């Protein structure tokens, strides 16, 4: 097992535990739920094997489905996100970037990273809440849940990225 795989596995466990034990109990104003485990998908580097990306995403979704009582919703949504992540990443990666470019706030500009994370998190939330409701009868609540959960999740992701960037800057100096 390589160091990269070990780090990825540790992040997998930490995000699953944080989501299941803490974040699933947060429902701001009855609508916004932070779905921080989506951050796991955003961190996959360019040219990562697609089969491995889909496997990681399905496993993350399956663990969250198992402990969150959402049968198949998170795994289907996260697998879809894993399928489209490489294509969205190519939209924001500089043309002269290395083959194993890893998206982060440090490697992309604020605007590009915000657009990248906002796009993928919004797609995830839209699919997640459609599958959870499995109906379009209450579409206002669906839009409110998707929008507020997207904003809350992106704020958390940007906070973690900013903290990670500051910690890296302190290590260098």
Task: Note down, in words, how this protein is organized.
The two termini are 31 Å apart. By secondary structure, the protein is mostly helical. It is globular. Helix 5 runs antiparallel to helix 6. The protein contains six helices and no strands. The chain has helices at 3-21, 39-42, 50-68, 73-92, 110-133, 139-172. 28% of the residues are buried.
Helix content: 55-70%
Structural class: mainly alpha
SSE topology string: HHHHHH
**Uncertain runs with pLDDT below 50, 5 residues or more?**
none
Question: What would a concise description of this structure say?
Answer:
It contains six helices and no strands.
Layout of strands and helices, then pairs:
Blueprint: H1 3-21, H2 39-42, H3 50-68, H4 73-92, H5 110-133, H6 139-172
Keywords:
173 residues, mainly alpha, globular, 6 helices
């Amino acid at each position: 097992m390589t160091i990269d795989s070990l780090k990825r596995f540790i992040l997998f466990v930490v995000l699953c535990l944080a989501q299941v034990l803490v974040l699933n109990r947060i429902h701001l104003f009855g609508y916004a739920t932070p779905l921080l485990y989506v951050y796991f998908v955003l961190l996959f580097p360019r040219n990562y094997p697609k089969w491995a990306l889909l496997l990681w995403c399905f496993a993350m979704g399956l663990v969250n489905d198992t402990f969150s009582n959402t049968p198949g919703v998170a795994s289907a949504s996260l697998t879809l996100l894993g399928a489209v992540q490489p294509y969205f990443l190519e939209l924001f990666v500089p043309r002269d970037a290395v083959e194993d470019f890893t998206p982060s706030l440090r490697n992309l500009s604020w605007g590009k990273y915000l657009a990248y994370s906002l796009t993928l998190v919004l797609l995830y939330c839209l699919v997640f809440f459609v599958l959870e409701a499995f109906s379009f009868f209450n579409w206002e609540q669906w839009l409110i849940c998707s929008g507020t959960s997207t904003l809350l999740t992106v704020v958390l992701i940007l906070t973690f990225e900013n903290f990670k960037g500051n910690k890296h800057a302190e290590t260098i100096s």
